[in-house]
Design goal:
This protein is an alpha+beta fold and 433 residues long. It folds into 2 domains: 164 residues, Jelly Rolls, CATH 2.60.120; 256 residues, Rossmann fold (3-Layer(aba) Sandwich), CATH 3.40.50.1110. It is built from 10 helices and 23 strands. The strands form 5 sheets. Strands 2, 3, 7, 9, 10, 12, 15 and 17 form an 8-stranded antiparallel sheet that branches. Helix 6 links the parallel strand 19 and strand 20. The longest helix has 20 residues. The two termini are 37 Å apart.
């Protein structure tokens, strides 16, 4: 069936306080487009689909540098919510949504990209998901999306100089312009039928121009109070380019762009920030972040923190545990039916007078996260154990090709691929039984 879709049909959705009010405006000429992409039910039972996804992965490495890894689940039910969502997706009855928060391991979109491609290949393509609208670091990228260099935006995120609670949005970052500014995000080998622009309504807010594939609309961001907002556009099933512009000194703050496709399949939101720590989430204004988070309706909450916390020598372990517990609990409070996964920190080394060494605090943080995961009903994946324990950095640097970068912190792409594949195997294992 071919359908007639307005080239840009905007729906303005204000989500402040969790009470969404939306209204879609008509008007504009209809253009003949490809059928809206509603993911067809994959062939076979949900268990067959899960087995097919596992069969499509590379065979586990046999070089001894990584273990297959065990997903610890004290309750035996930590992934039930995710599995129910994947069953719906496998039957063509709904969408499965996964969100991954973390530091630079996650922000690279290398292991999360493997999870996204594997699950979408088996259960259906629900679109790329969330992407930051402005590059937060040089060479920022996500698989399936392209973020151009931007101009005129100030990047805002928790740091030593910004330790107060602020309106950071879904991904824990915001970008604000107080002068004419420009940004551009596009799909890159992926398609979308719906595009969402997340931004802030605020006192004195200026105009934000949203241009999609050459057609522009303006949004006024002025409001009496701070509140999160989303502008949603239904678009033809194709690749798309989104440009965002401001025009004067009135402040405009943007949070992100979401690309989705149809009503089924799988969406993986990669929400990592290089250098971030679990306690930084507690600095995200809950009144702004929570409505955007709830709008994503996640079926899996995944948290990958700990390596950057090794730099916090001033904090006692009890503070780490308090922060980590509060961070997980807050997300669970706003997504009570979602599954939960804690991904432990990896081996990391620091230079010293006798060479590079793994700090003893790393093992302590692993056990703390394992303890919190068990208390909060989350599954736990021990990355350090998957690597073979402390000292993995030395071994991985010596492999050919190396699995570790020479900063003694980050992996090379082949290692991130291994991590993405072992996580996919562990996430699907219960479904394929």
């Amino acid at each position: 069936m071919r359908v007639l879709i307005p080239s840009l049909l905007p729906c303005w959705v204000w989500v402040a306080g969790g009470l969404g009010a939306s209204g879609c405006e008509g008007g504009g000429r209809g253009v003949e487009a490809a059928p809206v992409a509603v993911s067809a039910a994959p062939a076979g039972s949900p268990a067959d689909v899960a087995r097919a996804a596992l069969a499509a992965l590379d065979a586990p490495a046999t070089d001894g540098e990584t273990r297959e890894g065990v997903l610890e689940d004290a309750t035996g039910h930590a992934l039930d919510g995710l599995h129910r969502a994947l069953v719906r997706a496998a039957r063509g009855q709904g969408r499965a949504r996964l969100v991954f928060y973390g530091g630079s391991h996650t922000a690279s979109d290398l292991y999360t990209g493997v999870v996204r491609a594997s699950l979408q290949g088996a259960f259906g393509d629900g679109g790329h998901g969330f992407v930051l609208p402005v590059p937060p670091i040089s060479r920022y990228w996500q698989q399936g999306a392209r973020v151009a260099e931007a101009d005129g935006w100030a990047s805002l995120e928790p740091s030593l100089k910004r330790m107060g609670v602020e309106a950071y949005g879904l991904g824990g970052m915001a970008f604000e312009a107080t002068e004419p500014a420009w940004a551009e995000v596009a799909t890159d080998g992926s398609r979308a039928t719906r595009i969402e622009i997340m931004y802030l309504r605020q006192p004195g807010g200026g105009a934000l121009e949203i241009e999609i594939d050459g057609t522009a609309r303006r949004v006024e961001t002025e409001a009496g109070v701070l509140e999160a907002a989303t502008a949603t556009f239904e678009v033809p099933d194709a690749e798309h380019r989104v440009s965002l512009r401001t025009f004067d000194a009135r402040p405009v703050r943007i949070f992100g762009v979401v690309f989705e496709r149809g009503e089924g399949g799988v969406v993986v939101d990669q929400l990592g920030i290089a250098g971030s720590k679990a306690r930084h989430q507690l600095l995200w204004d809950e009144a702004v972040w929570a409505p955007l988070f709830r709008s994503r309706a996640p079926d899996l909450l995944a948290f990958s923190y700990g390596n950057n916390e090794l730099d916090d020598h001033h904090l006692p372990l009890a503070a780490y545990e308090t922060h980590f517990t509060a961070m997980v609990a807050r997300a669970q409070r706003h997504a009570p039916a979602a599954s939960c996964l804690v991904i432990g920190p990896s081996d990391r080394q620091y230079p010293g007078p006798t060479g590079w060494k793994t700090p003893s605090l790393l093992a302590v943080l692993v056990e703390m996260q394992r303890r919190v995961a068990r208390a909060r009903g989350c599954a736990f994946f021990d990355v350090l154990a998957w690597q073979g324990g402390a000292g993995a950095v030395d071994r991985w640097l010596a492999t050919r090709p190396p699995l570790e970068r020479d900063d003694h912190v980050h992996f090379t792409p082949p290692a991130y691929r291994r991590l993405g594949e072992v996580l996919t195997r562990r996430l699907l294992a219960g479904m394929a039984d």
